[in-house]
Each structure stands twice: as structure tokens, then as C-alpha cells.
Amino acid sequence: MRVSLKTVIVPSIPLAVLMVGFCFILWTFMFFVPIPSTLAIHYSTVAEKLQSLFSQNLLLSNLTCIALTLLNAFLLAQINNRFTIIRTRTFLPIFIFILLVCTWNETHIIVGSHMALTLFMLALFNFFSMSKNRNASEPAFLGSFFIGLASLLVNPYIILIPVCWLGFIIFQSFSLRTFLASLLGAIVPWIVFASIHYLTTNSVDILHLFNISFSFNLNYSIVTLPRIVYVSGLTLVMIIGIIGMYSLSNGDAIHTRNKLNFLVLLLVSSLTLEFFNCYQVSLFLPLLAMIYAVLISHAFTLKQNNFYGIVFYIFFSLNIVFVISKYFHI
Predict the structure, then answer these.
(1) What pTM does this model have?
(2) How far is it, in rounded angstroms, from Cα 129 to Cα 141?
(3) Is the sign of the CA dihedral 24, 26, 32, 34 positive or negative?
(4) In whole angstroms, what is the distance from residue 221 CA to residue 144 CA?
(5) How far is residue 284's CA from residue 156's CA, in Å, rounded to a whole number?
(6) What parts of the chain have a pLDDT lower than 70?
(7) Which of 118, 150, 169, 296 could disulfide-link 241, Cβ–Cβ 3.0 to 4.6 Å?
(8) pLDDT digit string (tens) for 158-180?
């Protein structure tokens, strides 16, 4: 029996609406599951002030995050279509991204992290347009400027700037001009923010405004059997997806392979930052969901065989079971 993903990869409009609607039904179920407080802490003073506007209204936080998730899904679709990350029409990146965010209830109230992802995706529009252009100072500046803005909300985002410089090398667009433009773009938001802070408080403490700390101490309250099984399953699917993606790389254009390599680099970098921030695991979850969705969608879309069809449905079922498990407090 052939397991086909064709109707999921290119669904009709009613089916696409149904798929997205099902994901938000999962979000509704997760609304009633308590979120450990240690999973929703921001380092940024800006994010703390932003979160305080929503902390008294859990429903408003959820609705705002839903709106931002839909916006980010739209941006993801535009990135894929404009830069042909996956060389055929597919709905899978959007569906998988929304499914993951709806499943991870840690992301349902962290407005700042969703906004940071929006800014980072705007940065990707600029960075992806720099391919083989060592004079692309404007997109280098704008992309880093957006990441600088994102780091005002989630401070560790600023650490991704050097990762993006490695991306410039991958895109064959690294030069002194693009490096300096990127460096300036990253610090401009902080200069403006520090200036405003000084004018309003008559004092400025850079170390207080820019607060990044690392913790190797794992919060064992979040290490449960369902979570271990779920993360192990996602990791296995990710490995299968990346292997499948690279097995298809010869059919991709060089600029597409470069973008996929950069996304893999971003995935590794983001996971490393998550590892070094064990008490702040929610910070990069929306970003991880976006990167994960693109990378595994590549193989699921282009490898039309039973194996990848079965793997996709296992991945889908894994998310459903994980949502259900949260009601049993295993």
C-alpha cells in the first residue's frame, strides 16, 4: 500500500484551512495545561516590560501569540516562495511550523519570543538576497539591524550575529564592507535604546540593559518520560529529514544548497544556545520550530516514497500523543 503525502503537500484551500484549524484546536487543549514559570522567563528588560502588559490576561497573551504565529507562518511561506528553499510548491513548512508551536505550550504566552522570530525572519529576507554579492552592504545592515531589534526582546539573539557572518561566507558575500555594515546594524538598536534609557532615567547601565547569563543546571521538573520520548522522536525525525535533504542536494541550485546549509548551521547554533540556557528553554523555541519545519519539509516534499510518508505520519502522531500526555502529568 502506497502512503502518499500529495494531498498534504499541496492541499486544497478547504483542507489547508482544516489542517491549520486542527492545529489551533490543539492550542485550545493546551490552554488548560499549566505552564511551569521557569519556562517563560526572559533575560531582556524590554521583554519583561512587554510581558507585564499581558501577564494579567492569559487569554490576551494566547491570542497575541496566535496572531504572531500566523504572521510568522505567512513570512515563512514568503521566504520559501521567494528563495525557492524547497524547489516545488508545498504547504508542509507552514503546517509543521504551526503544529509545533501549537504543541509546545511553553510558547503560548511568550509574546517577546514570537516578535523576535518575526524580526529574525525579516533579517533572513535580507541575508538570503546577498548571494555572491560582496558589496551587499544594505541588506547586511538591515538584516543585522532586525536581529539587533530582536535582541532587545531576547538578548541571546545577538549571539546569532557571528553565526550570520559565517552565513555570509557560505553565501560568498563576506567582505570588509558587509562585515562592517552588519556590525553597525547590530549595534544601532542598542545605541538608540541606551540613549532613550539615559534620557528617561538620567543613567545607563549597559550591563543591566544587556543581560545574558548561562546556566548548565537542568531544571529536572521539566524532564518527564513523555518529554524524553517526544524530544527523542523529534530528534530522530530531524536526523532522517537532514539525511534525506542532503541526499537530494544535487538536484538543488547552488544558492539553494547554501541557504539550506545556513539553516542547518542556525539549527545547531540555536540548539547550543538552548543547551547553555537550561532554565530558559522557551527563548528560542519559535525559532527552532521555524528552522525545523523548513528542513524536514524539504525531504518530506521531494522524497515521495512510503518511508518518508510513514515518518511524517509518525511525526504528526507524536505531537498528538504529546499533547494528550500533558493531561496525565506522567
Answers:
(1) 0.91
(2) 12
(3) negative
(4) 36
(5) 9
(6) 1, 34-56, 203-223, 277-281, 329-330
(7) 296
(8) 889 999 999 999 999 999 999 99
Q: Classify each residue of 304-324 as buried b or exposed e, where b means 16 or more C-beta atoms within 10 Å of its C-beta.
A: eeeebbebbeebeebbeebbe
- Report d(CA 161, CA 216) in Å as an integer: 23
Kindly state the cell numbers that stand for 328.
496525565
> What are 264-320's pLDDT values in tens digits?
999 999 888 877 765 566 778 999 999 999 999 999 999 888 899 999 999 999 999
Contact 85, 79 (CB under 8 A): yes
Residue with grid cell 567582505, as numbered in its chain: 175
Q: What is the pLDDT of residue 19?
A: 93
Can you tell me which residue has the cell 515563512?
Answer: 76
Task: Say whether 6 sits in a helix, a strand or coil.
Answer: helix
Between CA 134 and CA 132 the distance in angstroms is 6
Cell of 84: 525557492
3-class state of residue 104 by DSSP: coil
Q: Are 155 and 196 in contact (CB under 8 A)?
A: no
Secondary structure (H, E, C), 157-200: HHHHHHHHHHHHHHCCCCCHHHHHHHHHHHHHHHHHHHHHHHHH
Element holding 241 (H helix, E strand): helix 225-247
